[in-house]
Design brief:
The structure holds two protein chains of two kinds.
Chain A (H helix, E strand, L loop, with lengths): L7 E10 L4 E10 L2 E6 L7 E4 L3 E5 L1 E6 L12 H10 L2 E6 L10 H14 L3 E4 L15 H7 L4 E2 L8 H10 L7 E3 L4 H4 L4 E2 L2 H6 L3 E2 L2 H17 L3 E3 L5 H12 L4 E5 L1 H5 L21 H13 L4 E2 L8 H4 L16 H10 L6 H16 L15 E10 L18 E11 L2 E5 L2 E2 L4
Parallel strand pairs in A: 1-4, 1-5, 6-7, 7-8, 9-10, 10-13, 11-12, 13-14, 14-15
Antiparallel strand pairs in A: 1-2, 2-3, 5-16, 16-17, 17-18, 18-19
Helix pairs in contact in A: 4-7, 7-8
Chain B lengths: L15 H18 L13 E6 L5 H12 L3 E6 L2 H6 L3 H10 L4 E6 L4 H6 L5 E7 L5 H14 L7 E5 L6 H12 L3 E5 L15 E3 L2 H5 L4 E4 L4 H5 L6 H8 L3 H5 L6 E3 L12 H5 L5 H19 L10
Helix pairs in contact in B: 1-6, 1-13, 2-13, 6-7, 6-13
Chain lengths: 435, 312
Amino acid sequence: MKKSYDRILFKNVNLIDTKNKTIEKKDILIGNGKIEKLGEINDVDAKVIDCQGMYASPGLVDIHTHLREPGYEYKETIDTVSRAAVNGGFVAITGMANTVPAVDTAGTVRYVLERGKDVDLAKIYTYGAVTKNLEGKELAEINDLVKEGVIGLSDDGNTIMDPSLLLRALKYIKMFDIPIVLHEEDINLSEEGVMHEGKVQAKLGMVGIPDLSEDTITYRDLRIAEYVDGRVHITHVSSKNTLDVIKYAKDRNVKVTCDVTPHHLLLNDTYVETFNTNYKMKPPLRSEEDRLALVDGIKTGLIDIIATDHAPHAIYEKEVEFNYAPFGVTGLETAFPVLYTELVKKGEIDIFQLLKLMNENPVKYFKIDIPTRMQEGEDATFMIFKEEDWKITPRYFQSKSRNNAFIGRNVGVRVMFTLVEGDMKLVEGEIKKGA
Amino acid sequence: MEWKRKDLITIEELTPEEINLILDTAEPFKEILRRNIKKVPPLRGRTVLNLFFEPSTRTSASFSIAAKRLSAETMSISTSTSSVKKGETLLDTARNLEAMRVDMVVMRHSCEGAPKFLSERIEASVINAGDGNHEHPTQCLLDLSTLRENVKTFKGLKVLIVGDIAHSRVARSNIWGLTKLGAEVSVCAPPTLLPQNIEQLPVNVYYNMDEAIRDKDVIYLLRIQRERQKVGLFPSTREYMNLFSMDRDRLKKTKEDVIIMHPGPINRGVELDGDVADGKHSVILNQVTNGVAVRMAVLYLLNGGNKDEKII
């Protein structure tokens, strides 16, 4: 990886100390890819950037990103998704295995990771498929995938419907110490559904996706995990009932962690009344009651992680009738601005809790090599943001796609700098020149 | 009162005043339809396009006749949704229509929200002629117009809608329209044909037909689609008929002056007996006649009406 070893001095930054939960004004000196010194620093030979009024914190880590490359380069590429990542303050993102070809062989893992290094913006990690070609039939050659460096296994959008297959997979991976990430959707219950089966759906008449399709199979899978003492992560939890099931399992010491997306935390099914396809995703936006339970879940720590489920689709794919649009929305570039604005500034959670959900816990549960605290000698991988009012418009996006549920929102924070190992990937809100 | 909307997409969004304005505007058109010469000039030089993505005979014909009676140029495009899915997108269709300078588009589509999608992307007025299971506003308006001829007031009027509520745009539009005008709406169906969250709609729910029909002023029967049986929502047509059909015996248990309605096309012997459909309680054919008058009123109002001149 090419590195810029020039020293940089960020002056007058409000440094967020995630360990002591304090915010203190400091200068940060960067050199050799590391944080050389913190404190009041003057008279050094370095490029000086005045950060009066700005905040520095560990960088964001996403454990659920659809890179779309290989196979769907018209939606997104590893290049554009990396740009989107650093634009949103993410220093590491994790690709889902549902590409074409799927990430089910050593070769594809290597391809994705090497492309990430070539692009050299955010750090790229990847999952491997649980089953060959994500078909839910035969296990992929998991040892190969682990050797190449996958951080977990997932068939994501394809729920593993066969319980005995999941049982075997969870048993088998016990020798590798990685989790299986589960998209929980009993397809016999969700069928042709396009939105949450609830109040709004009763009025609109569209085919519903009951919360039942998520919580019943979550229960099944957590019991399987408990039975074989395997490790699972439930991704994009969307309902109160599913949270209750996870709570039950956690109380029984099942090895389970879970995440929630920004859109499930901030939006509910009433948005679907607009028929705007940027509110169409799986799992669907649920009721307000569900949303409030999710917000409660990130406060109490029942929910471990916030993940974006960044799912780019081409404009023409989303500019169609609601029923025909593909599921999914982008999230890397809006996650931090909307969450900071709606949760931190409004006092629902503090910045330390947000960083725990978006940096510390992803790093801890998925063994991602990103610092969780800014201290001397640590890799200079972090972000700097400032409070500023602006409106999210499509022009802001670096992603190739525009299918975002927060377009038009006013937000109160902007990511200014994103650094990975001392290299400024985002400079004053602009992607580094030449990238 | 003046009509302000560009489009007619749902009954849910209309005020009672807007609904009454359409119904009042339809009255003189009913009179015109009884004349020998049935054509009037308000839409002269205007182009109305029927864009049907789902098969339809009566609604499409009714809109065409309504537009022609108002002297508009009309054109109909019907296309199966599947072929459109493979080819041109709805957005491209919309752009092409815009380029042809069409004034009004009457649209039927199997996807909920499709007319709204179109209306947000073209300047022409869009009239929803049925979108999936969502709404069918002109059906509701013609039903209200027919009821007005037969009842003194909507206030406190007890209306029962029977059949596949979950998959019925007619039911949804009528539930909104009737309740907005003060009627009390009930539904009767097997629970599998009711939306999971039916309590969110302003209706009383019955499973027992004999109990439900007893005190109702109006019984509105919905068409039963056989595909629903195939996916297991009820065991057989025979069992459905036993439980929910409006047959001669059940008719005896209703109020004496009950009004029987149906949006058509009827399955004789299924939702109701043939002689109930043809009998003195039935206003089914009046519904059809009023369909033309009500659609004339809608086209007329969306075209801007004519605030100071008379219709002819």
